[in-house]
């Protein structure tokens, strides 16, 4: 059972490995998300995760594909970080979102004007590795949460949905 992750970003690869590593053989591949480099809504971010998962599931040797995507989404009170994941196994697909966090305006404004969150965060923190480690969520929670932990949470939702399906497939068909 081989699960291919649609990214080489260590924050994503480590999250998948922590959650799925006990039962799946893992590999990673750079695939196209098919959305913009900076997704600007929940819908676009979810679509990026889905397209990464589907692309991975079709690669040679794959039993399943998983996609994780980061983005931002505008709400009543400002711009939030959002994260989505998708798991594709055969013709089945599950998706789930992660926690959201309001970005301060001095970060949100350049992103609204077209800059990517990653470079903005690198400039603000003077840290080149910020997107692959704590991420913006780590910075703005003073280290209480990390980008990898947010992706781990999404992976648990995906693994759990797949487990529920596998355990209840027959019941679902009869219901
Ligand atoms: O190699 P991939 O998998 O693409 O890794 P990535 O870090 O670019 O991850 P995403 O494409 O899912 O990220 C989507 C957006 O999230 C942004 N992002 C980058 N660093 C971030 C950080 O520290 N915290 C949150 N989002 C970040 C990044 O600018 C992208 O525009
Ligand atoms: Mg990217």
Overview of this structure, please?
- There is one protein chain.
- By secondary structure, this protein is an alpha/beta fold.
- The chain has one domain (2-169): Alpha-Beta Complex (Maf protein), CATH 3.90.950.
- It is built from 6 helices and 6 strands; from the N terminus they run βαβαββββαααα.
- Strands 1, 2, 3, 4, 5 and 6 form a 6-stranded mixed β-sheet that branches.
- α1 (10-20) links the parallel β1 (2-5) and β2.
- The model has no long low-confidence stretch (mean pLDDT 96).
- The structure holds inosine 5'-triphosphate (ITT) and magnesium ion (MG).
- Inosine 5'-triphosphate binds next to β3, α4 and α5.
- Inosine 5'-triphosphate is lined by residues 7-9, 12, 37-38, 69-71, 81, 116-118, 121, 130-131, 135-136, 147.
Give the topology, please.
Layout: E1 2-5, H1 10-20, E2 25-28, H2 42-57, E3 64-75, E4 78-89, E5 92-97, E6 101-102, H3 105-112, H4 117-125, H5 135-140, H6 147-174
Helix pairs in contact: 1-6, 3-4
The structure holds inosine 5'-triphosphate and magnesium ion.
The site of inosine 5'-triphosphate has 19 residues, from strand 3, helix 4 and helix 5.
């Amino acid at each position: 059972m081989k699960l291919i992750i649609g990214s080489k970003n260590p924050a994503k690869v480590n999250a998948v490995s922590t959650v799925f590593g006990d039962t799946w053989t893992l590999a990673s591949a750079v695939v196209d998300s098919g959305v913009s480099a900076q997704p600007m809504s929940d819908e676009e971010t979810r679509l990026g995760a889905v397209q990464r998962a589907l692309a991975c599931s079709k690669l040679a040797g794959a039993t399943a594909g998983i996609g994780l995507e980061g983005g931002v989404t505008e709400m009543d009170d400002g711009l939030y970080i959002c994260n989505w994941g998708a798991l594709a196994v055969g013709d089945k697909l599950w998706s789930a979102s992660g926690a959201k966090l309001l970005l301060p305006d001095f970060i949100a404004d350049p992103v609204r004007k077209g800059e990517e969150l990653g470079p903005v965060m690198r400039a603000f923190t003077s840290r080149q590795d910020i997107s692959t480690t704590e991420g913006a969520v780590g910075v703005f929670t003073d280290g209480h949460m990390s980008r990898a932990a947010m992706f781990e949470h999404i992976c648990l939702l995906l693994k759990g949905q797949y487990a529920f399906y596998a355990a209840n497939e027959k019941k679902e068909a009869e219901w």
